[in-house]
Amino acid sequence: MYIWGTVHFFVMKEEEYIDAIIGIFKVEGIGLSMDAIADRIGITRKTLYNRFKSKDELMERCLDRLSSIFVKEIECLADESVDVVQGFRNGIMGMWKFFCNSSHIFTHDMITVYPSVASRQQDTGRLWLNSKIRINIERGQADGTYRKDIDPLLMSRYIGFSIFAFFHNELKRGETTDFDDYFKKVIDYNIHALLAQKTEQCHSE
Predict the structure, then answer these.
(1) Rounded to 5°, angle at Cα 113 from 112 and 115
(2) Beta carbons within 8 Å of 48's beta carbon, 6+ residues apart
(3) Is pLDDT at 177 greater than 90 in this prediction?
């Protein structure tokens, strides 16, 4: 199912073969040996080790790739080409897309086998999310869309923490069926809380 072929492996961009390996991990878990990984993508063990010195290095590269995808999905929270409400919607739905493409098997294995690495990646992702939400809130306050009595730092931490806590709880239980409904409610609830009184009526119509 994941046979890429030796020649194709070498002409692929780095992110493409990392994505292929991540795809394998999401289905089969990260317990696969380097030999098994090489076999799945149709290359020799030697070729794989020419790319990655160890399994730990391979895992680091996979997590770096996932982090870059996550950052790209939520970057629109700070997009100044759209209004702040649309930017907030786009950013939270970007998170929804990222989480829906996640895997219970992969997440569970990472937390179990590489707890320190997984924790560091989660903290980095949460801090990045908080910073983008804060930018969105501050911009909305500046243009009069959001309430000025809200503390941007506190609110951004609250939203970021609640989303990450829900995500990890659901993945640990192996349940992601509620993601769609949850994220839609998160968007509506938080926009309602953020909007200034004079703009709330406009966005509810």
Answers:
(1) 65
(2) 34, 37, 38, 41
(3) no
